[in-house]
Design brief:
698 residues; alpha/beta; 3 domains; 11 strands; disordered N terminus
């Protein structure tokens, strides 16, 4: 049943006879681990129709037959307040899956039961999967699964998904549930005050609601969710304005407001979940004592210093660790270049086409890969390890007040951190922010933190013009200044968020549920797979798509001449005057413009222009590089302005495409391009002006 609707929402479901089972659960309960363990490699990902919320569909075998498993987005409630929660609710209610599996955390069963009771309102075929039994046991927590099954009247399976324990029993119970071998769940008794208000509406509903449960439909129509009301009307053919339903709803709202009614319904669910958990869970009083001790440190006065130290350490590991694989990749691409050149020569490729392919497209493309891939392959796993350990929600907790003062959302701190690896990934991560206004603020300001593509140029400028001492001392001062630039980016993020919140994106900051999950030992294998496949290669693929045509354009500009000068020289001459006002020159501004496809190639383009080359220029000799730059007028002021402009300028093409995809608006994509650029121009202009005034005075 329900396969037509399900197929309309999800990509490439199996044939229409295969049962469809929804997998639901709150974040941080191991739902994805359960999904991966059940489906193995028989899964694929995509997006929900009309949504930017990721979906995953897989096939598992229950009782010798295939079952399609749909991994719903993690949600705290079916009272949808975000795109993720709306997707989970809509699939359960309107797509009519054959059954649902709700995953709960054994260490905090009570919270999971609140979601379970809401799912039971939508479908009678539900299996409760109590996950993380090993963690519960290590804390002295025990769950009486048999009694839990009796109290709910549904099948219950206890598992430890990370090591596969209990999964076979879960599949057996799921197969029995699909075959109808379990009786209907024990009816949920509603308080008299809720039943009295709901009954007239229930009586006014038609008998055929096209698969929607009558009780659920009546409850939702009495709650303040106009978008859901419209969906119910469209699905059932109801007219909420016609009698007798209209009169029943009006009478109910005269008795109690929609908001107050919704609060009472939620309170009844929470009360029942508390009662059930109290009956089946046995836990020592100090079961969470260790986590609380750690939280006193990480969310207390030392929270910010620890956060900065960890950020600095991750950046240092990323920068130092990326040097070696970058060099290996460059050497490998150089060898591959010889083979590619031999092939082109063998087939007698014309000289201009040979140069376009080798000196243009190949050189730029391999440069982007060798510079981008190693830092991302290091940063994203480290970032994901902190996420898996449970530290990132503590970062959001620490920064929440600061973002609230800027009328933004505390979750923006998480998307901002993701931007250090790649701004495109940070923009995509903004989906976790429920409020459209606050999500847009996060998207527009994500580029104020430097991605790994900007770090090479920043480190080079700092090392050549600002690092003091030698050896470890020089490294330490370089790291300190780089961290200072990052802190400046964070402060500007808060400032611009405040300005946007009080001008074009006015609004009151929303509240959100911030769960501090228990600290867990990270699953290194899963982290590596998830961070490399889902983040690193995804972002690198988008960068390569724009790097290849950028290489062709750069070759054309470097090799086409007018009056003896190539187009690069002519264009940089036009930009020289505005460049001087910003403390730089025309070559640097042109390098930024041509580096739009990838920030990694900004400095190489500048070197190519300075040396009058016809292909991308790279030099690893810092002394030679310093000589080239100073011979062309670079001073500490030039380096400082380059640092500020690399920190505050337009996003790269990959990020711009991502912004356009997420906002579905050219207007907001243009705003995301212009806002950081204007900030960078303002900073550079003021620094240059102050420097000239001081020079005149002294």
């Amino acid at each position: 049943m329900g396969k037509t609707a399900a197929s309309a929402q999800l990509p490439e479901l199996t044939d229409t006879q295969t049962p469809v089972v929804a997998l639901a659960g709150m974040p941080n309960v191991g739902k994805s681990t359960v999904f991966n363990a059940l489906t193995g490699l028989h899964q694929h990902t995509g997006n929900w129709a009309g949504k930017t919320v990721a979906s995953a569909v897989g096939v598992t075998i229950c009782g010798g037959r295939p079952v399609t498993l749909v991994d719903l987005p993690g949600t705290y409630s079916l009272r949808a307040r975000s795109a993720e929660e709306a997707v989970a609710r809509d699939f359960l209610c309107f797509d009519e899956p054959d059954a649902a599996v709700v995953v709960c955390d054994a260490t905090c069963l009570e919270r999971g039961l609140t979601l379970l009771l809401q799912v039971l309102e939508t479908t009678p075929r539900v299996l409760l999967c109590v996950n993380l039994l090993d963690e519960a046991e290590s804390r002295g927590i025990s769950v009486d699964l048999k009694q839990l099954e009796q109290l709910l009247g549904i099948p219950v399976a206890g598992v430890t998904a990370r090591n596969g324990m209990g999964l076979d029993r879960l599949k057996c119970k799921l197969d029995a549930l699909l075959l109808g071998e379990f009786p209907d769940p024990i009816p949920q008794s509603l308080p008299e005050e809720i039943s009295a208000v709901m009954q007239p509406v229930l009586d006014a509903l038609p008998s055929d609601l096209h698969g929607l449960p009558p009780d659920w439909t009546a409850l939702r129509l009495l709650e303040p969710e106009p978008e859901l009301h419209a969906q119910i009307a469209a699905h059932t053919g109801l007219s909420l304005e016609e009698e007798p339903l209209s009169a029943a709803l009006q009478h109910a709202h005269e008795t109690i407001s929609a908001e107050a009614f919704a609060d009472k319904v939620i309170a009844a669910i929470v009360t029942r979940s508390e009662a059930i958990a109290a009956a089946v869970v046995t836990a020592p009083e100090n079961s969470s004592q260790r986590d609380r001790r750690i939280d006193r440190i990480l969310t207390g006065r030392l929270g910010f210093p620890i956060m900065l130290v960890l950020l600095g350490l991750i950046l240092w590991i990323t920068i130092v660790g990326a040097n070696y694989p970058s060099a290996w990749l460059s050497a490998g691409f150089a060898q591959l270049k010889e083979g590619f050149s031999w092939l082109l020569e063998t087939i007698h490729t014309p000289g201009w086409l040979y140069s376009l392919l080798i000196d243009g497209i190949y050189t730029v493309l391999t440069w982007v890969i060798s510079v981008m891939l190693p830092p991302m392959a290091i940063f994203f796993p480290l970032f994901t390890l902190l996420e898996d350990f449970g530290y990132l929600p503590r970062v959001a907790f620490n920064l929440d007040k600061r973002f609230q003062r800027a009328c933004a959302c505390g979750k923006q701190s998480l998307t901002m951190c993701m931007g250090f690896g790649c701004n495109a990934a940070g923009v995509t991560g903004c989906r976790i922010i429920d409020s459209p206004r606050e999500r847009l603020i996060a998207i527009l300001t994500n580029n104020f933190v430097p991605c790994n593509g900007r770090f090479p140029t920043m480190i080079t400028c700092i090392t050549l013009f600002f690092a003091v001492g030698s050896g470890f001392g020089k490294t330490l001062t370089s790291a300190a200044m780089l961290l200072g630039m990052i802190v400046l980016g964070i402060l500007v993020t808060l400032g611009v968020s405040w300005i946007l919140s009080h001008t074009i994106l006015r609004g009151v900051p929303s509240s959100f549920t911030l769960e501090l999950p228990p600290y867990r030992k990270p699953q290194i294998g899963r982290v590596l797979v998830r961070s490399i496949l889902d983040r690193t290669l995804f972002v690198l693929g988008r960068a390569c798509m724009v790097a290849a045509p950028a290489g062709a354009l750069l070759w054309i500009l470097a090799n086409c001449r007018i009056g003896g000068d190539n187009l690069l020289t002519i264009l940089s001459g036009f930009l020289d005057t505005p460049g001087k006002w910003l403390g730089m020159d025309g070559v640097i501004l042109l390098a930024f413009l041509l580096g739009f496809p990838a920030n990694e190639i900004v400095l190489p383009i500048a070197l190519m222009c300075y040396t009058s080359g016809t292909t991308l220029t790279e030099t690893s000799d810092m002394t030679q590089l310093y000589t080239i730059l100073t011979d062309h007028g670079w001073t500490w002021l030039t380096a400082l302005c380059v640092l500020l402009f690399i920190l505050f300028h337009f996003p790269c093409s990959t990020t711009c495409l991502t912004i356009l995809k997420e906002t579905k608006s050219w207007k907001w994509a243009a705003a995301a391009f212009c806002i950081p650029t204007l900030v960078g121009i303002l900073f550079c202009f003021l620094i240059t002006l102050i420097s000239r005034v001081l020079t005149c005075i002294f």
